[in-house]
Specification:
The chain is an alpha/beta fold and 419 residues long. It is 50% helix and 16% strand. The strands form 2 sheets. A 7-stranded mixed sheet has the order 3-2-1-4-6-5-7, with helices on both faces. The chain has a 3-stranded antiparallel sheet with strand order 8-9-10, with no helix packed on it. α3 links the parallel β2 and β3. α1 packs across α6, α2 crosses α3 and α11 runs antiparallel to α12. The chain starts with a helix and ends in a 17-residue tail after the last strand.
Amino acid sequence: MNELIIFLSRCLLSWLAVQVCSVLALLWCLSSRPQDPLLDEELPKTAIILCLRGADPFLPNCLRSLLHQDYPNYNLKLVVDSIEDPAWQIAHNTINELGATNVDIQPLKIVRNSCSLKCSSLIQAVSELDESYEVVALVDADTVVHPNWLRELVTPLNNPKVGATTGNRWYVPTGRYWGTVVRYIWNVSALVQMFLYGIPWGGTLAVKTSVLHQTGLLDKWGKAFGEDTMIRSILGKYKLKVQFVPSLIMLNREECDLPSLRYWFQRQLLSSRLYHPLWIAVATDVIFTIMLPNLLLLVFFAAWLIGEGDSANLALSWYVSYMLALVMLILFLELGVQPEIRAQGQQVTKLSAAVIGKIAITLPFTQWIYGLAMLASFQMPTVHWRGVTYQVQGPWNIRLVEYRPYHLQDQPSDRKVSL
């Protein structure tokens, strides 16, 4: 028994070393000197595209932040799923409140049955742009941006080798629901993976319009389930890269309950499996992070049941040590991200003993829930999202099989909970 424990502990230490190196690489990126933003006269005309279905909890804040950008020449293009959607009225109210003139709002005209609703909306918005637009910026309704967001997003595109730029999201570990903490812990790991594997995030993403046409990205969107994960591999064929911008890690204060979280995990994993060229690396990361410590936990229970107390204590000590090391990595990343969040004028999470304790307690449950979601994502012939059902038979074989407009009664009773 002890030989097995020693073998597993050595494997765990090796994997922990890989995780530490990955976190250090991201922390180094976060601490690097940011690129000087372009001057007003150097900034290209840009269209910000926001696709809406349902009224996300912070949608008014999102719209206000997008309409207060320190950027000389941009327009906000809103595509709402239908005029019956609660987001339609919220958007109109916010636009009227601000008296904004650089915004255009339209309902989705054609609901394509060969791709997701978001892809349908993106195709509509991009296809209607005139040739004066040099950049298209995508944003999600759960993203509340800072005034320099668009300038910082567009600036790296001045490099001819950069075809797209992206940020990422950062959740808060506080709130009413345990699902909020689970999602926070998952996202810490996801941020590291997305940074290492070059996975772009559609909540903050900019692409040159010339690249959109050169790569045929609109045609790909017309047959796809998601719009962002595929971009890395498509741009790579044209020797263009996706650049991560650390200052565009956007704080998300929405909450999440556990019942909806696992299915959300499944959708995230499905998108990676369908479109990311390094899906095997992503899956391997998940398997090792979950399997190795839980094998030690199983050995602990087995040793305890057969009365081998010393072996049980050894296995448990290694398990607890590894989990505490992961908690430390989470805290280091939180401290590394906080300067970016603070620079945006946002309030950062106070790492009190209660918050750290909640993270430590929730970490094992996060691994189990995410492991179950990983297994379920391999058997996911249909996807349900905000009242819409898709049949997924392959990355370019998507069928919209059930659709209806989103209504106010579909909104969660708690207005802080993610849709």
